[in-house]
Design goal:
CATH topology of the largest domain: Tumour Suppressor Smad4
Number of strands: 22
Number of domains: 2
Helix content: under 10%
Number of helices: 0
Radius of gyration: 31 Å
Largest sheet: 10 strands, antiparallel
CATH architecture of the largest domain: Sandwich
Structural class: mainly beta
Oligomer: single chain
Order of helices and strands: EEEEEEEEEEEEEEEEEEEEEE
Strand content: 35-45%
Distance between the termini: 44 Å
């Protein structure tokens, strides 16, 4: 049956004119429904667990869509009171059935907890306890700007002779982009901890006695956690593949990643 466009009468198929009003019958074009294929769901299911003090879990965030942005103002995972988070700080996303973590150009970075030893490059930032340090390769001592020679005075500045060999240096970083002490490594290995280490921080209650080590081996440089209680965290500079049980810092928020296979 067709419907007359003029009087809405039902007209049998094959009629060219409406039996009621005589109007010509125009057959309707068949409607073609365009179906956009749904984005395939990842074969894994992940959630973030916000870790509170002493390792106790807090809120859980289920990661069910492809992107999960995090920040102080923009995103789906928000912490408006954390001033160390950028407005848009990080993104967690699925790709090829894997979960990745990416820094979205934040000011303070995203730090992943390392396992054993990882290779580091010039300019790498890492956290041990509450200490933020920057690793730098050495191409000579940093210039000393504290003393300015008088005009016309050709006297040489008096100081200690340089070490015969330098392997790398660690720069202590404070808030508001302030640099603190600079430690030059005259050996190929430097240990960090609360006491009896090459770099000791006795007043940091979050750092272990022997916490981490930076060392050189065959011209490459590595950061190693020495089984510390709270872990050593390395700032990521590219998307990082996350695995079950990984921990990372964004701002002052510590997260644990939990991943399981998606139900069929």
């Amino acid at each position: 049956m067709l419907t007359c466009s003029q009087c809405s009468s039902q007209v049998p198929d094959g009629y060219r004119f409406c039996w009621n009003c005589g109007a010509p019958i125009v057959a309707e074009e068949p409607k073609v429904e365009i179906v956009t294929p749904a984005e395939p769901a990842p074969s894994i299911q992940a959630q973030l667990v916000l870790v509170k003090g002493e390792g106790f879990p807090g809120i859980s965030y289920h990661l069910r869509t492809k992107n999960h942005r995090m920040g102080r103002l923009h995103g789906t995972i928000l912490f408006p009171d954390d001033r160390y988070l950028s407005l848009l700080h990080a993104n967690l996303y699925y790709e090829d059935d894997k979960l990745f973590l990416a820094d979205e150009g934040s000011d303070n970075g995203v730090f992943i907890k390392i396992h054993d030893s990882v290779e580091i490059e010039d300019g790498a930032h890492f956290l041990s306890g509450e200490q933020l340090l920057r690793f730098e390769q050495v191409d000579g001592y940093r210039p000393y700007h504290g003393v300015v020679a008088q005009p016309g005075d050709d006297a040489k500045f008096y100081g200690c002779p340089p070490e015969k060999s330098l392997h790398f240096r660690l720069v202590h970083l404070f808030r508001n982009h302030q640099e603190g002490a600079v430690f030059y490594a005259s050996t190929n290995s430097v240990r960090l901890g609360r006491e009896h280490c090459d770099l000791s921080f006795p007043f940091d209650r979050h750092i272990s006695g022997r916490h981490a080590r930076v060392y050189e081996e065959n011209g490459q440089f590595f950061l190693q956690d020495l089984g510390s209680r709270n872990g050593t965290f390395l700032r990521i500079n590219k998307p990082h593949h996350l695995s079950h049980g990984d921990h990372f810092f964004a701002g002052q928020q510590l997260f644990r990643v939990e991943i399981s296979e998606a139900a069929a």
